[in-house]
Amino acid sequence: MSLEVVQIRLGDKCYPVCKRKLIEQSDYFRALYRSGMREAGQGQEEQLLRGGLSALGLELVLDFINTSCLAWLEQEGEEEPPLLEELVEAASYLQVTPLLRLLLSQVRLGNCLELHHLAQVYGLQDLHDACLDFMASHYHQVLRRPDTQLHLHLPHALQQHLKERRMRGTATLVAIGDFMGTSSLGCHPQAEAPWSMLRYDEEAEQWLPLANNLPPDLVNVRGYGSAILDNYLFIIGGYRITTSQEISAAHCYNPCLNEWSQLASMNQKRSVQTIRARDC
């Protein structure tokens, strides 16, 4: 097929685009060209009559068809990209599958709620599920986003659904410490590494590695406080074995992402040991 360029017209503006790429990437245009409709036989100009389809959205989608990328969409960051609604509307109407597939990997904190809303409006089930998975995996971060930045509120029903989605799976016993040569735990040979995080496999009756990126601040630390909230593990305070020095550091483990993150430190250094002594 030749690299024939056609002019897509919306209103009084025309957009040049490669005909072969139109057919390859848009189900709408593929059906149009193969149907023998009058609009497909105009040659130099294609008349796209769509009430409500924005010229800007069409331009964005045709730019993607021509270049196979959208630089502004793929930029990292939490800020909500502009023109998202126009893009999703045009991509959905023209059935540009590669672009809709790209959106699945572009869900961010700054756009997850709007993309979720747009997926519902345009019946994009894959995008809808991708947004739910992202928000469940980043549950606390999503809850902490100010409404002024989100531009959308997190409905209570959606909040509960995300929490339930996050809690799916099997409860697991976790241990953190120095397990080198510790036979009492019955560690799998691969798990016998100093200062690691292990999970207990009930079927195999073995301890296996859970997270290999244990924060350096947790190495040689004992007497820390721990808590679980919404399937996050929090490790706070403690004291270093080598110096007996209390610390104020706070860390959070997210099993959905297998990631540790450092939280704001406590105002006062403390450990479970000192708290018990003061309580007594």
Automatic annotation (TrEMBL):
<dbReference type="InterPro" id="IPR006652">
    <property type="entry name" value="Kelch_1"/>
</dbReference>
<keyword id="KW-0880">Kelch repeat</keyword>
<dbReference type="Pfam" id="PF01344">
    <property type="entry name" value="Kelch_1"/>
</dbReference>
<keyword id="KW-0677">Repeat</keyword>
<dbReference type="InterPro" id="IPR015915">
    <property type="entry name" value="Kelch-typ_b-propeller"/>
</dbReference>
<dbReference type="InterPro" id="IPR044727">
    <property type="entry name" value="KLHL42_BACK"/>
</dbReference>
<dbReference type="InterPro" id="IPR011333">
    <property type="entry name" value="SKP1/BTB/POZ_sf"/>
</dbReference>
<dbReference type="InterPro" id="IPR052392">
    <property type="entry name" value="Kelch-BTB_domain-containing"/>
</dbReference>
<protein>
    <submittedName>
        <fullName>Uncharacterized protein</fullName>
    </submittedName>
</protein>
